[in-house]
Design brief:
Keywords: Plasmid. This protein has 210 residues and is α/β, with parallel strands linked by helices. The protein is built from seven helices and nine strands.
Length: 210
């Protein structure tokens, strides 16, 4: 198994599973963390949880259980799938889950990029847009559970997590991949454990992935 995805809800799990299959990666989607080993031949497995709006402690516990199950199946890479509108307040789950997953994997930094251009979710200069509107100027500002009052990803994640965020801005992403990687490593080492990358179009998403 090459890729293990931990998704915080069923819709997000279905979205990413369909994207993976569409791009040539055989994928299995599971609802919840299995209680036993499952013989799988797919290259990717997506585990759908219900942690998008639950207490942070519960989200961390279930996400770690999913990670450990994927590790036991021989998974090599891991992806935490959260909502492309980053539904999470200062007391929310995304930061604590990221911190827990990084600690469990022995890592100190990751890239935060909730953009999904095909659905109109884009990031520019660290700000998350829904269509042509800033996140906090869209209908998400009045969400009954997770009202989004700030569109800046760096501020959002620093309120939740233990790390410091640094912006990998559009001019850097637009460079050649070697320069992008060098800048990413330098900025991570100097400033942060959870950087935020710009993504405004799908080709750049592939560049970020590399």
């Amino acid at each position: 198994m090459q890729l293990g995805v931990i998704a915080d809800d069923f819709t997000g799990a279905t979205d990413i599973a369909s994207f993976l299959v569409r791009n040539g990666m055989p994928t299995v989607q599971l609802n919840g963390v299995p209680t036993r080993d499952i013989p799988l031949t797919s290259k990717a497995v997506v585990i759908s949880l219900k942690t998008r709006s639950c207490p942070a402690e519960m989200a961390v516990s279930q996400s770690l259980a999913a990670l450990r199950w994927l590790q036991a199946q021989g998974c090599q890479q891991f992806y935490f799938k959260y909502c492309s509108t980053f539904d999470s307040t200062a007391q929310g789950n995304i930061g604590p889950v990221l911190d827990a997953l990084l600690a469990e994997l022995g890592e100190t930094r990751t890239v935060i990029s909730p953009a999904l251009p095909v659905n109109g979710r884009t990031v520019y200069q660290g700000y998350l847009f829904v269509g042509e509107q800033l996140l906090n100027e869209s209908g998400m500002r009045h969400h009954p559970v997770t009202p989004m009052e700030d569109a800046h990803l760096g501020r959002l994640i620093e309120r939740q997590g233990r790390g410091k965020a640094a912006l990998i801005a559009w001019p850097i992403v637009a460079r050649s991949p070697p320069r992008w990687r060098q800048s990413t490593i330098r900025r991570c080492a100097m400033w942060c454990s959870t950087p935020s990358a710009n993504r405004i179009c799908s080709p750049r998403a592939w560049r970020c992935g590399r």
